[in-house]
């Protein structure tokens, strides 16, 4: 049986061989106009690989006849594969799409181009911003549940699970809360940890009480009276500028954890952090001052956090004290007092005379008993950072309050985007402790970096897991920060002619250094309130905790910024000398309102101001004089307006406006101004003068000529009684 070299494979079956030959014969007839030279070479190459030649084909095959009889035709505008496909489509009855002829467009039907201002397209975000999406995660959730909440597919989350170093399993296997957070951060969503309060040991705990109120209403003095100290006397400016935490042993034997918050308007974030971690809020109101803006703000913080309020009316020993007026004001603001049928307790106290303190203690313990405060003692701890600072000898320190569980020395923790191993735990009097129980304020040592105030503390099992969580959070935080900067960047619109003169907006870069993390945030937020869309843009290029260093000077010199130090030590001589050589201004302050006042005045000095047109004076036309017969070289006939200045003064160099019955008739410059026979530059109120307006000959008795001057109006720095500041244009 003969072999066939068609396709490079031998076919032993005669029936299969005949079917293949007939099929090849049909294809050859359809593609007779193909480049046969290329086809012959391909068949020859295929035969040589199999050990055959074209002569080894069977004599009766039509295949050999075609190769010997037909002449070779070359086509350079198509390939054999393209022509064979086209022939097969026609044989099967399929229509091949043909390209239509080019048709020239009629110029008469073409629309003229529209002249419009080019507006660059806005960048489209294909993914939902991570700032808008929040996912709740918990211990033991599965891949399926996480996929539903994040909106990602199960296969995608399983791939991320492998990338974070976990062994892939079933999508129904439970995940730890740390792994769930890592996966959620990789797909670009925010997470909120949901912890369980169940445990084998649930015991009563001490209440956490936050003291809030308006500035200078006696909050710190009241706490000094409770714990028998004198902290208020040592504070700069006589006001609290830090968030303090301490435990007070009451006369009844019970202990209460107090948080002292600042009352100045700039420390709103601190008051919000205090309300987030507290059980009870003591609202301090001065009996001689009444309800003030920060009093209302403290009430709103308590309502948003769903925390009960106990009102302490302080300074009742003063002659101008009126507690009843304060109660009426609080009731009018929606606070339901006990005396008026509500559930809010009110106590009248005096921090100076130390009266009413026992009643305040009784109210706090009664409120805590009604709330039945208990916490889980066993298991990993959950804590909240109240304040953070950088110590020269001990490194980064975090003041925290434990919510549940127990913090133990030696545990690996993740605090925000920082991590570390607890080296030491100290109470608020700097005594070492081996562990921290719920409602206990402590200072933690051993962190690798400085956390932010308000961060949660998470206990993890290993150092590797702590590093991975910290790296993922840092990456996520940096992305969100850059996105927020792009969203907050001011859009400068081109002024139109109808809007009139527009002030030039100046950017003021500032470097902020403070003693603790909370005051850094407070100063930064307060400086941003000085932003004005017409005057200046306060750009905080860098913030940090600790003293001013040489690197801060280099950064300020590179971007042309000034350095603001709040509650930091005076920089050493070498740093001050470098700042002087680099022409970098350093401003050191210990009181927040003085800092804001100096920065506001600096903004006012640096702002270019707005150019405005003011009426400097007015003159009334009393008579008209005509000079005729003048030569063309002298300007021809001329009319002179005899005027009397009725308000302000009139200057020859200024622009004049001619008014008739309140309507503008002419506006132009003054070509001549004389008093009697003397040329003068200006004429004051009450004097008579002669005035000639260039290109104006239409004067009438009774017209008013206004003298217009361009004035640069500077912005103003305004500070309210509550401490809020702003720049008025």
Mean pLDDT: 76
Largest pleated sheet: 6 strands, mixed
Low-confidence runs of at least 5 consecutive residues: 1-21, 42-72, 123-131, 495-503
In whole angstroms, the N-to-C terminal distance is 105 Å
Features:
729 residues; alpha+beta; six-stranded mixed β-sheet; 33 strands
Structure description:
- It is found in: Mitochondrion.
- Pfam families: EF-G_D2 (PF22042), GTP_EFTU (PF00009), IF-2 (PF11987).
- Residues 204-374 form the Tr-type G domain.
- Its main location: mitochondrion.
- It comes from Linum tenue.
- The chain has 729 residues and is an alpha+beta fold.
- Helix content is 29%, strand content 29%.
- Strand 15 and strand 16 form a beta hairpin.
- Helix 7 (177-186) packs parallel to helix 13 (463-488) and helix 9 (268-277) runs parallel beside helix 10 (293-305).
- Residues 1-21, 42-72, 123-131 and 495-503 have low confidence and may be disordered.
